[in-house]
Structure formats: structure tokens, C-alpha cells
Amino acid sequence: MDKKILIIEDDVILRETLSDYLVKEEFTVVTASNGEEGINLAKKERPNLILLDIILPKKDGFEVIKDLKRDEKTEKISIVLLTNLESLNDIEKALNLGATTYLIKSDYSLEEVVKKIKDILNQ
Amino acid sequence: MKLNIINDFDLRKQAEELGVSIWQTPSFLFIVLGAIVICIMTAVFFITRYYNSPEILVISESMIVGFIFTIGNLIIRDIENMARTNKMKSEFVSIASHELKNPLSEISWEIDLLFSKYAETLNKKQSEIVRNIEKSNDKMIRLVNDFLEVARIDQNRMILNRKNINILKIIKEEISGNKILAKLNQVKIELIKETDNCNVIADERKIKLVIDNLLNNAVKYNLSKEGKVEISLKRKNDYLVVSVKDNGIGIPINQQKCIFEKFFRSNNATRYQTQGTGLGLYIAKNIIEQSGGKLWFESKENEGSTFCFSLPFN
Which residues of chain A does B113 touch, with a Cβ-Cβ cutoff of 8 Å? Predict the structure, then answer.
């Protein structure tokens, strides 16, 4: 499909498994393990879509969304929240800040994650 | 005499439910308060009769008020402590369950990756072993989700994402999802639709949970070679009523009143099926009630059960 995905997730196994799978699905993948690195990479690499964890070191998911939406270079990038449903308030807050949608990690198989990504990128 | 009071005020049951000794229950403290007040008022009566002075009366009445405030305060602090402990336990379950979700997601995705992209490197036996790991992991994820749901219910924090949903569609999906289990248990599932309007406003994910639980129970707890499950949808006034009827092992009469309790599993259920947390119906009942409906059942041991729930139409 030749699209670029940025994964911002501090859990190394989730990040690498997701990355591995997406690469096999022929996406270009860049990864970050904290919010600050994520923001820098988003501005440098200009991905088509960002998979963003809410709980992150350095800068959390909310700050990442705020930062990216403020910058005209990155404000149009679709952002998919990765969550384990810590709290509905958090998800609502993130969606209000501009996240496109969310998915619950423990409920989605990798195949379903890719389907969701493709649905969003095709819109 | 003491035993009678304990039974009447159900002190023993209250002590068990709150996790304290009988002497610490609020009901017992109220009894002590009442007894002290009676004693003081009796004493006041006799003292004023003997002394015949208004000052004594005022002093005595002040003492009564003092005692009521003191013991009342003790009771309130007692209850506050219990509520606080209860809240902490519930929060602990929440935090622990959330912590577990990440490692479970990790296992889930690693297996996904293995099967979808590296399957050629596995032989048949290895594949089978990994499939079993996947199944166990799925069980754990369901358990953790159940614990979280129960903790949220206990803290009155249930999340309901209300939208217009089609119950018939959900039921059909659940029937298809339970097809393999039904075949294993030699159970036939039949769907009877007696109304055309199957749309309600509710949380789709949660209602799916409820239907999955009822259907799963109906199929699981079935021993006959001609197992049959009938799911029907009908309209009753302003409510959509869904019934799940089976000809399974049923629920013994003396266990029926506990069926919706947390962790309760009736004797015949545990005898035939070691798997099951006893949380499904507790969660299901809470979901339906918070969605504006009711969940009820009829059952006869060795003949079968019919579980019904209602949801208000839009």
C-alpha cells in the first residue's frame, strides 16, 4: 500500500510486534517510544497515520495530539489511539483534542488493526 | 434472648457482608445506643422524681444528647471506614486488571504475528501448541475484562456507550460465533422472530456480552443428545423482549435466588463444567438494568431454563 505509519508506544513488545506486522503488510513504519520522540518523528517523517498510546513517558498522548494539531505540517495526520480502556474520559478527551478514533489493544487482533488503518487511509 | 436479637436484626449476616465482627456492625452499635438512651432516661426519671429540680433534668437531658452524639459519631466513622476499605479493594481490582491487560495484549499480538506471517516455519504439532496458548490467553483476557466490569459496577462507574443498535443482527452474530461450541455439545440453535422492530438504544458491545453469556450458558449446560436452544424476539408494550430457552440441566430451586450473585455457580453447573467464573450473570443483570431493562428467568432442574431480558424501544 506504500503508506507511512508512525507508532508511538512505550511498550517495546507491542511496538515491535505491530511494526513487524505492518512491515509484512507492506507499510513503511517508523517508531517512537515516548511522546517527545514521537512529536519529533511526526514532524520529520510526515507519516500518513499515527498509532498513539495515551500513557507515554516524557510527553503523554494528549500533549502529542495538542502539539501535532497546532503545527500546520502535522495537523492533518490521522491519529488512532491505542488504549486498554483505562478510562472513557481519557478517550473522550483525546477525541476532543482531535484524535480520529481509538482501538482497544486487548480486543483487536493485528489483522483487525490493519483493517482499521486501511479504512481510515482510504477515506 | 441475645440469639433472637442477632437473628432479627440479621447482625451475623451484616457482619459477614461487611467483613467485621458482630460487635463492630452498625446495627449492633445502634442497639447499644438505644440501650444507653433508655437507661439514661430511666435514671433521669427516677432522679428527677427523687430530687424534683429542673437543673437535674436539664443536666441529665444534656448527658443523653452528649451520648447520642458520641455514639452516633462512632457509628458514622465505623461506616466510613468500611466504605473506604471497600472502595480501596474495588480500586485495587481495577488497577490490577489494567496492569494485566498490557502483557495479555502482548501475548495476543505475538501469536497473531506468528500465525499470520511465520506459519510456514511451524509444523502441525507446534501450530497446535501455539493455538492452545492462544486459547488460554483469550480466556485470561475475558477474565480480566470480567473483573474490570465487576469493579466498575461496584464503583458505579459502568461505561455505557449508547447508540441505535439492531438486536437481531447482534443475536445472529452471536449464534454464528457459538456455532462450534453448539456442534461440540450437540445443540441446535433456533431463532424465532416475532416482531419486525429490533432497534433499541444501548451499548452494542455490552449487549453483545449479555447475549453471548446467555447463549453460551444455554449451550454449555446441556447434556442431552438432542440439545435445543430457542432464541425468540418479541414486542411487549414499549419493550423488546429477548428469550433464550434451553432444555439443559436447569437450576435447582434452592439455588435460584442466588443465581445473579457474584461468583455464584449452582452445584449442578460446577459438577458438569469446571470452567466458569460465576460473574457472567451478575454483569449481565447490571448491564441490562443500567440500560433501562430487566433480566429474569424460569428454570426447572433437569428440564431446562429460559432466560429473558427486556430493553426499552427508542
Answer: 17, 20-21, 110
Looking at residue B43, its amino acid is A
ipTM: 0.88
- pLDDT tens, residue by residue, B11-59: 777 777 777 777 877 788 888 888 888 888 888 788 778 877 778 778 8
Which one-letter DSSP state was computed for residue B155? T
Cβ(B92)–Cβ(B148) below 8 Å: no
Domains in chain A: ranges and CATH: 4-122 (3.40.50.2300)
pTM: 0.70
Min Cα distance B106 → chain A (Å) is 6
Q: Residue A88: phi, psi to the nearest 5?
A: -65, -35
Cα gap B71→A112, rounded to integer Å = 60
| Contact residues, A window 23-62, toward B, CB-based 8 Å cutoff | 24
Place of cell 466504605: B83
Of B108, B117, B161, nearest to A21 by CB-CB distance is B117
| Domain B163-312 homologous superfamily, CATH | Histidine kinase-like ATPase, C-terminal domain (3.30.565.10)
